[in-house]
Fold each of these.
Amino acid sequence: MILILRSGATQEQIDHVIEHVEALGFAAHLSQGTHRTIVGIIGDEERLRHAPLKAIAGVADVLPVLPPYKLASREAHPQDSLVDVSGVAVGDGHLAMIAGPCSVEEPDRMDRIAEAVRASGANIFRGGAFKPRTSPYAFQGLGEDGLKILQQVGKKHAMPVVTEVTDPRNVAMVAEYADMLQIGARNMQNFVLLTEVGKSQRPVLLKRGMSATVNDLLMSAEYVLSQGNPRVILCERGVKGFDNATRNLFDVASVALVQQLSHLPIIVDPSHATGRPELIPACARAGLAAGADGVHVEVHDCPEVAKSDGPQALLPAQYDELMGQLRGVAELLNKKLPDSQLSRT
Ligand code: PEP
Ligand code: MN
């Protein structure tokens, strides 16, 4: 920790700062320049993280040396993490290709969509059974019945499943059916929920909040990691922008930045980031090119009757074409994409 003192700090204040630091059990290293005095605090920074050092008279600023997300940081863990989602490796060169409808719908439709996306090379199937909706009158999801459908369809098509959990009271129940728990953008800072999924043994797909900074995202990941659950995959799904031409603002730079700051895998979700099917392929390619560890896409076989997010869904044939393009990008980057079971001409 570094303390920068005010330009007019008196000798009495400087002496007090040093006494205070030493009384806390740390060594202080004084550095006096012509205009400013700096005090370096030597010792375990974590023990001082929440101390009100800025309140000491004469202190202008407090600069931590280490990031506050010590478990999520690259310093703590220089190697890329690899997360095992029921047999599907994600991170460290392995790509998660997550696809499926926004909401879990009737079994036959789920079966058709799963079959199609699996054939195109998806390796994780998605669908929300608990939907966080802006309107209380909009479709809220099928609940536990939806979880049963999702689990059954995932098993039939040999794909692990990911689904959102919105309520700390439902974590144990959702974890019974799902291979990975999704924390949605609206709940990224629901700290009680983060603590609960941290206690569960399931991998967690943590989506960036729509107004969250990269630091906020990594601090939320820290909540999960600090509970002893190391299996966290981050997801860039766009942040609020000023231009409603796209649903959100796809922050592709955050992917590259997160990979500098953290060892955790990060995937992109161009469906929620753009809200426009015609923009999804370009943003998916850009995400992979920026270093993302996977792509999350909403797919529906009849978007005009979808229970939620129909206007942004790709048709199975469009998803198949996109997967062909992503295979090319992955090859350039020497990353592993699951094989397609469709013959492509
Ligand atoms: C979803 O995945 O369907 C969803 C609601 O996503 P987000 O939390 O990113 O809006
Ligand atoms: Mn959705």
Amino acid sequence: MDKVYIHDKVFVPFIPFEKISQIIDSVADKLNGDFCDADHDYARPSEKEDAPVLLCILHGSILFTGELLKRLNFPVELASMKLSSYVGTTSTGVVKEKAPLSTDITGKTVIVCEDIVDTGTTIVALKQKLLDKGAKDVKLCTMLLKPEVFCNRCELDYVGAEIPNRFIVGFGLDYDEYGRNLKDIYVLE
Ligand code: IMP
Ligand code: MG
């Protein structure tokens, strides 16, 4: 891992993929503990109706959701939605829905997959949106959390790891759309 240059800024190594992978293992273990049912039978039609929806918040959590999905041992339906609240390296506080929810979630349990929770503005607005759309229950799952700035206006059900209030890129996270393809996570120098 070396320094990376994105637009006008320099980022330095912060969380290597090996550590990210361990963080995702721990989130998956907790989800499997809560959602795995020894009697699950993929062939029974009712299984599909009962299955929770794993909701990938595009584009930031695309890699997190993919890595998490392959570690889950229970029937799950994958869905996506595109939201955005960041411009450059700061949150605007306004959550925009850039692409609609890809499936009907009426009566379903939705597990939201976020890359990172910063102020919490996105996740609080999103939870309300999903309940308004008829979700039976909404579980909030995030790979990373910045506890120093989190508003604490909702309970986070699954948190991979906590980080200081610094701007990061890589493993799906971007700086003005670039840096998502970095395998490891980097922090603004
Ligand atoms: P919040 O609404 O303030 O909690 O911000 C959450 C959203 O902002 C996340 O879904 C990310 O897309 C983005 N975000 C927050 N912190 C960072 C960061 O350090 N790097 C890149 N994107 C971030
Ligand atoms: Mg995001």
